[in-house]
Amino acid sequence: MQKITMKTPLVEMDGDEMTRILWQMIKEELLLPFVDLNTEYYDLGLEHRDATGDQVTVDAANATKKYGVAVKCATITPNAARMTEYNLHEMWKSPNGTIRAMLDGTVFRAPIVVKGIEPCVKNWKKPITIARHAYGDVYKNAEMTIPAAGRVELVYTPADGSEESRILVHDFQGSGVVQGQHNLDNSIESFARSCFEYALDTKQDLWFATKDTISKKYDHRFKDIFAEIFENEYKEKFEAAGITYFYTLIDDAVARIMKAEGGFIWACKNYDGDVMSDMVSSAFGSLAMMTSVLVSPHGYFEYEAAHGTVQRHYYKHLKGEETSTNSVATIFAWTGALRKRGELDQIPELSAFADKLEEATLATIESGKMTKDLALITTIQNPTVLNSRDFILAIREKLEELLK
Length: 404
Fold this sequence. Notes:
By secondary structure, the chain is an alpha/beta fold. It contains 14 helices and 18 strands.
């Protein structure tokens, strides 16, 4: 078949360890034979980030602003052990955090549903997409250990020098701990718009939940901003699309979701989204079967797998040992990016190819051919366990059938 031609480049961000190995296999076997791949390449592997003083991450984010769509491989966020292992100049920040801040985006994570990998919650029939606000709360907190009796106050000092205001946090009679959290209206507004836009884009209902009955200022601010933006900018669009926006308390949302069948987006504050995305991914089967897309209200999209770099398999690979590493979420990162590029550039055959590649991937698993992690949880009898490369080759065989 003739290769599909692309117009605008896709921003390609390479990564680390076993996912970097899979990245190359996917390109060689599933993309390059069928698509005249047009990418602007950035190496976000830890060694190159260190060599460039992490400038390459900033450059990749700026390229995403320029071209609109990016696909990213999993990357290492270094800790003390990685500092020694890679002889780093600095303990560089998470590339995802840097990119998220620069694109002003919200992360949407959704499980990949396939026959034979059944959700733990029996009534979940469709994916539940978690939208996590990725700013503030406990992740940018200020905290203090209180050694003995004393007062802790929350103080606001206006920049114009006018009179400051203060409230008592607690009058300690002994030792304890205290924590201060913050958020920004413009960040919450971007979060809300990203959620509303993504709901329209995917034609799914949107749920949002906080604890505004207890947190009458902090959480209530989220509720009010979402409500105001929905009423002023999105209500009519949602009605035209036949979808709904639903707000409730976080504990009520959890109770409802356990009895729902899925097929909607669940917007969560930062901590809630961190926890609930792991719950949803585990309940649907595996973090290796979870897509992730960063959506900016400014029209930027960055696709990646939700999981990490699969360090344990990489060390086996370096020893020359065979691995059976699940590449599904990384394949779906590529298909998500190619489909969006096809939509934006009006290349229907590119979007159709992305659909076919996803179909081939799921059909391969449903035929009983899968990696070891899926074989351990599948309901399919006597599955065939394939190594990392053979699984990708089995998908290619199915893809070629579908493209005929």
